[in-house]
Backbone:
């Protein structure tokens, strides 16, 4: 298996990014950096659905369009223990910006950045103490659990039969914690709205598992799905009067259009700004930062969001309650 290969990005993501970057500027910037300058996604050969990697891959493609630098993926094969050797090979081939969300490589990347002060690392997720963080290492917290809490709260607010069904893939990133967080969101809604919405949880490893249950529930039910692309791709298309769906990490448009029509909201990471900022700093040769670049309040900064397709998804009362709940979560994170 090759350690470095081109970054694979779907046609739908590319189309979306072209649209987004068109909003930034109608005239592409003329690159003034070396052609070898490359931003690399450092990831494991084992893909886990629900990690920040999918969004970071899309963000790097956007950075490629905006800044004209090269983008690649550095895949660390399973069982490799000498991570620094792989990172050095990547650096020698031009990977002067390494972006990652794989917590198995957090310490290795911090050590590598300390030894190579001319390059930069942007890491999303995990935990690193300020004393262990080099000046050329940028750290952004990942807070998918707050997103799950918001989704649970909003789903409970949309329920018409006092029941929300949560479908979660056992291999999904932080699956057990996601379930707990979603349940907390439902419970919080019940408290503030004096409601009695129950949560029913299903473990769905495959699209068939999901289909078998969805086909048996009332079409007007509210369901939430935390699962990878393999489950979404095999999901039977919803009818126009099918369930109201809360999703996660689907980057609206990356699933089949027929299924999106019933997806009213999705928990999404919005990490484009930290990625684009890191690339801009790199090209300006501002590799080291003082003070150290640390972002811990991702919910407050809208780096994790419950994204809706349109403004009319939630009525006024639910919108107000959802905003209040978000502020309560932000305050709790600050304490």
Residues:
């Amino acid at each position: 298996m090759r350690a470095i290969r081109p970054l694979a990005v779907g046609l739908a993501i590319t189309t979306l990014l072209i649209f987004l970057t068109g909003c930034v500027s109608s005239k592409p910037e003329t690159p003034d950096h070396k052609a070898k300058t490359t931003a690399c996604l450092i990831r494991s050969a084992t893909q886990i659905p629900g990690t920040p990697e999918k969004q970071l891959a899309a963000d790097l493609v956007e950075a490629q369009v905006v800044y004209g630098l090269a983008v690649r993926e550095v895949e660390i094969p399973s069982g490799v223990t000498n991570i620094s050797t792989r990172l050095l090979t990547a650096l020698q081939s031009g990977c002067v910006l390494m972006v990652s969300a794989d917590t198995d490589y957090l310490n290795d990347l911090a050590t590598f950045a300390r030894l190579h002060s001319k390059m930069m690392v942007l890491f999303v997720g995990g935990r690193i103490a300020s004393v262990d963080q080099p000046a050329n290492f940028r750290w952004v917290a990942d807070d998918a659990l707050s997103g799950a809490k918001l989704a649970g709260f909003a789903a409970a607010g949309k329920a018409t039969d006092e029941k929300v069904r949560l479908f979660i893939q056992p291999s999904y990133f932080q699956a057990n914690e996601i379930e707990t967080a979603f349940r907390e969101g439902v419970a919080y809604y019940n408290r503030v709205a004096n409601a009695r919405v129950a949560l029913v949880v299903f473990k769905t490893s495959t699209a068939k598992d999901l289909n078998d249950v969805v086909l048996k529930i009332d079409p007007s039910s509210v369901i939430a799905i935390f699962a990878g692309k393999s489950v979404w791709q095999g999901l039977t298309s919803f009818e126009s009067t099918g369930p109201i769906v809360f999703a996660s990490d689907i980057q609206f448009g990356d699933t089949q259009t027929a299924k999106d029509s019933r997806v009213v909201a999705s928990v999404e990471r919005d990490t484009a700004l930290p990625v684009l900022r890191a690339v801009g700093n790199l090209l300006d040769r501002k590799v080291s930062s003082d003070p150290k670049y640390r972002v811990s309040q991702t919910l407050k900064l809208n780096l994790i969001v419950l994204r809706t397709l349109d403004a009319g998804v939630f009525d006024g009362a639910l919108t107000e309650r959802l905003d209040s709940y978000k502020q309560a979560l932000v305050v709790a994170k600050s304490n």
Remarks:
- The two ends are 46 Å apart (CA to CA).
